[in-house]
Amino acid sequence: MFERFTKDAREVVRGAVTSCQEAGGGTVGPEHLLLALLDREASRGSFALAALGLPVENRQPVREALDEARRRAGLSRADTDALADLGIDVTAIVSRVEEAHGVGAMSGDRPDRGRRLGRPGFGRDAKSVLETSLRIALAHRDRHIGDEHLLLALTARPGPSAEVLADHGVTHTSLTRVLYSEGEARAG
To answer: 38-62, pLDDT tens digit by residue?
Structure first.
């Protein structure tokens, strides 16, 4: 499948692995793909983010929101709200776990954890994002998978990455409109 990826999309995948390694994680997740996308400049995905109000210099709040979601072990706000309805305070649980085991204990990214040698593998959710990006590219009759398809795939799947992007005005619908609107020249 990677032979169909553009240079920008391949850089995002490499950046996701690097982001995971820097965080001390053992498995690449959708949040690592999003962090790598946020680092891109002068790509189709980057231009779409900027068109939706997220130019490179304004992406720090998205990073911080992703960090917060990782502290909650990847639970989305919807998950947290559902648990609150059952009387479970996720914030209190995270605080107690971090008191006992250190900041980041629930994210799996603690630097003192035993690390495997070699590159981290892609988790099920990250693989699903990659597969969804292929389906999106095919649906739009695009010959190659670009970073914009990875971005669209992240917004198409429920979870913290899509939730954080939506909080900043980046939804699947708005991205599709920016990337595939009538009369817009498409970069390939």
So the answer is: 999 999 999 999 999 988 888 899 8
